[in-house]
Design brief:
Pfam families: DUF2383
Protein name: DUF2383 domain-containing protein
InterPro entries: CHP02284, DUF2383, Ferritin-like, Ferritin-like_SF, UCP029477
CATH architecture: Up-down Bundle
Distance between the termini: 49 Å
Number of strands: 0
CATH superfamily: Ferritin, core subunit, four-helix bundle
CATH topology: Ferritin
Structural class: mainly alpha
Shape: elongated
Radius of gyration: 16 Å
Number of helices: 5
CATH class: Mainly Alpha
Strand content: under 5%
Amino acid sequence: MDNKEVISVLNDLIETSKDGEEGFRTCAEDIKNAELKALFVSRSQACASAAAELQQVVRSLGGDPETSTSVSADLHRRWVDLKSIITGKDEESILNECERGEDVAMKSYKNALSKDLPANIRSIVEKQFEGVQRNHDQVKALRDIARAS
């Protein structure tokens, strides 16, 4: 892959990370459970750190890093807001939306890892993908607990 293609892949992941940052922040604002609120704030900060790390890599490659969220994530958050109003912002609904967001993030990272990335960049993306996988699994487990309650 040439630098331009690598930058494009990384900018997609930056957008995904920014989406996660905003998504988890929105969930933290909407949830009443203090433990879940703290978890979502922590995940939001981790997504922000991931985006910043990728932005630095893009800069080192001579590119202009993405700085915003995706239009589809903005639309999804509006849907979550509307759905939250209707459902009363219950934990299960919020966790469902978080899991859906993490499904999208996993797909984005898997797509990036299917590319022929330089080894040093691949290792960063793999490390971040492991974090996305952990987020997804934890949110899914919490959602299953909320559903069982």
